[in-house]
Design a protein that fits this description.
three-stranded antiparallel β-sheet, 50% helix, Arc Repressor Mutant, subunit A, alpha+beta
């Protein structure tokens, strides 16, 4: 199967959805997304950590420093009330987007009608 690339603007939604299950450190967020998608989506650190920082600045997530089970210090991120509201907004938008794409994929009509050029 071909590698899937994230559609522009998808990363915030995926991170918010991941944190909806509970607080997690950045590595855990990336690992959960990989696991749930059977390794079809892999989030690079160079994209993930700037996104986490951006979402924290917007107030969608908060962070605290904690000691992990491996006795390492890690920043743990949690969804805020504002983040939960944003997740609801983005879920509704994505549901509409997915349905629109599904309609195109399953369209029974043939070629698009020609348009007049002006």
């Amino acid at each position: 199967m071909a590698d899937l690339e994230l559609v522009q603007g998808t990363l915030d939604f995926l991170v918010l959805r991941t944190l909806n299950w509970g607080p997690q450190h950045g590595f855990g967020v990336a690992k959960w997304i990989r696991r749930v998608t059977d390794d079809r989506l892999q989030i690079e650190d160079g994209a993930l950590y700037p996104a986490l920082h951006r979402m924290e600045q917007k107030g969608w997530i908060s962070s605290t420093w904690e000691i992990t089970e491996n006795r390492r210090k890690a920043k743990v991120y949690a969804l805020t009330a504002k983040g939960r509201r944003q997740l609801t907004v983005q879920t509704t938008a994505w549901d509409g987007y997915v349905e629109a794409v599904r309609q195109i994929i399953t369209a029974s009509s043939g070629r698009p009608e020609a348009t007049a050029r002006g």
